[in-house]
Amino acid sequence: MLIGIDGNEANVKNRVGVNQYAYHLLVNLNRLDSKNHYTIYLKKSPLPDLPTPSPNWQYQVFGPEKFWTRFALPLHLFFGPKPSLFFSLSHYSPSFSPCPTIPTIHDLGYLQSPKQFTKKDFYQLTHWTQSSLKKASRVIAVSEFTKSELQKIYHLDPENISVAYNGVDNPPVISSSTSTATLLKFGIKNSNFFLYLGTLKPNKNLPFLIQAYSQFRQSTKESIPLVIAGKKGWLFDSIFQLITSLKLQDSIIFTDFISETEKWILLKNATCLLLPSLYEGFGIPAIEAQKIGTPVIASNIPPLQEILKQSAILIDPLTQSELTDALVKIQSASIRQKLSETGLKNAQKYTWENTALSVIKVFNDFG
Length: 367
What we know:
Blueprint: E1 2-6, H1 18-32, E2 37-42, E3 57-61, H2 68-79, E4 85-88, E5 101-102, E6 104-105, H3 109-112, H4 119-135, E7 139-141, H5 144-154, E8 161-163, H6 176-185, E9 194-197, H7 206-220, E10 226-229, H8 237-245, E11 252-256, H9 260-269, E12 272-275, H10 284-291, E13 296-299, H11 302-308, E14 313-315, H12 320-329, H13 333-347, H14 352-366
Parallel strand pairs: 1-2, 1-4, 2-3, 4-5, 6-7, 7-8, 9-10, 9-12, 10-11, 12-13, 13-14
Helix pairs in contact: 1-14, 7-8, 7-12, 10-13
């Protein structure tokens, strides 16, 4: 069977979120599936870390880049060799296709908070996603929660939705000198710090986190820094305004975008990872932290309850005192040790190999 894939989400240098998912899934599909043949469609030449071309793994690069998914890709599919099916690593399938399509739905959070997006982005998310789902022969969701959202909002048949949980890399081996240099680069003087990891955007609930952190400092007189690691997304100006008003400029460290190595160093050295999101489709940073033995404090929203269960401290993302109390609680060495052990066990289930095997099963069942 010939499977076509839109590989553009993986073909970027600084990978976050869906880019990470796309990259790791392509790598593992290439490694694990020798039965099917793959054509990866791209706007630009493949980056050197993408899988090497082989008899059953080929790339096709073409333009124009503008409106690529809407026009260039569909025309290429119609007038070139036709795949048996077309798989999208994101919400967006080709606008029209001569073969069955399978999109991947990561979350539907934009429907919960439309004011968090520009009109253009919100229009694209809603209309392109709806169009992809309407035409889809199958749909892949990254969690049971996302599957339930697809049933509830789009009235999809659950038999046509397959869950393929996200995976997490194994932590790399990093020298102590590299770790020390990285911490110094960000102005982190020791391994006692709270860590938030992710893009700065509204659904991540960062003002809530900052206010709870401020209350923690006031009530305990502890000077543990808060490290916020991730690139700026959108509507983030209020975050910096809040920090100034609370006089926390010297206590909160912003790293901006970080490399994979820097990410694992921060995760390894943090007292705990904080994920107080209002909405998630999955929550990869929580599993990454657990993979390396770092305790997690996260929101008690359905997708995080689903993947974390009893392996983390879960808090109400609307009740500031719960997060403040959790920051106090995590100071206990025995509690950190228990969460580290349960987290390591929980994280074993979430590998990119398992993700790829779930997706391959969808392909083969479809075929």
